[in-house]
Write a structure and sequence with these properties.
Length: 107
Amino acid sequence: MVARQRPHTAKGYVFVLMEDEAGMINVIVRPEIFDRDRIAVRGEPFLWIIGRLAKDDGSFNVIAEEVRALKVRSAPEPAPDSRHTAPSPYSFLRSLRQNAPDSKDWG
């Protein structure tokens, strides 16, 4: 997730800007979905969005139907006799989950 906005003029709608290797896309979260999935929308740095793609005047948005926290699975621990000393590839993601960014209020 790149940004999350909940303007007072949006009648309870929340707008989430998501980014992956393909680019950025806006996610529109309706008030009833936000009420149900509030913990994930407000507190999780990585989100799994289930929804439908909507095209409006040449722009694409995802209309969220469900918002979940994207969980990071633990990597298997190396064998005790292993000389592998590199940190787990998931340790960075795990540290980000523990230090989620504060919610910003832009309006």
